[in-house]
User: Which sequence fits this backbone?
């Protein structure tokens, strides 16, 4: 279980760092051509990008350093909530076909949160 949690955590972190960085560095008008929600969300897209990058760091660093390891399931839980919002946004915009990625990220984030709380918690130093 521990190995599976680490693999999923690292893969999620890579996905969220990539997605968050794209939301932070890409001009909004260019980003809007790839992600339709940007038109409605505007600058809030940047906040979402920051949340994704910080969440990605929270998935790995506390567990790896064993400094405040309880932050890892908290980060995973918050990323799952963020992805629930993404799924909801896709549904409201009528983009049911685009919600699959967000659903997968939501489920994987929930798995890490559950696993780090119930099955393989990491002890602090």
Assistant:
């Amino acid at each position: 279980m521990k190995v599976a949690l680490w693999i999923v955590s690292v893969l999620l972190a890579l996905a969220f760092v990539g997605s968050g960085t794209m939301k932070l560095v890409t001009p909004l008008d260019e980003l809007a051509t790839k992600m339709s929600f940007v038109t409605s969300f505007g600058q809030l897209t940047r906040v979402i990008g920051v949340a994704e990058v910080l969440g990605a760091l929270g998935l790995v660093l506390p567990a790896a350093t064993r400094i405040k390891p309880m932050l890892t399931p908290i980060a995973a839980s918050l990323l799952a909530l963020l992805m629930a919002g993404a799924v909801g946004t896709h549904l409201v915009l009528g983009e049911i076909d685009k919600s699959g990625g967000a659903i997968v990220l939501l489920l994987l984030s929930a798995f890490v949160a559950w696993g780090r709380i119930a099955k393989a918690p990491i002890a602090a130093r």
Notes: The chain has a mean pLDDT of 95. DSSP finds six helices and no strands in the chain. Residues 66 and 125 are 6 Å apart (CA to CA).
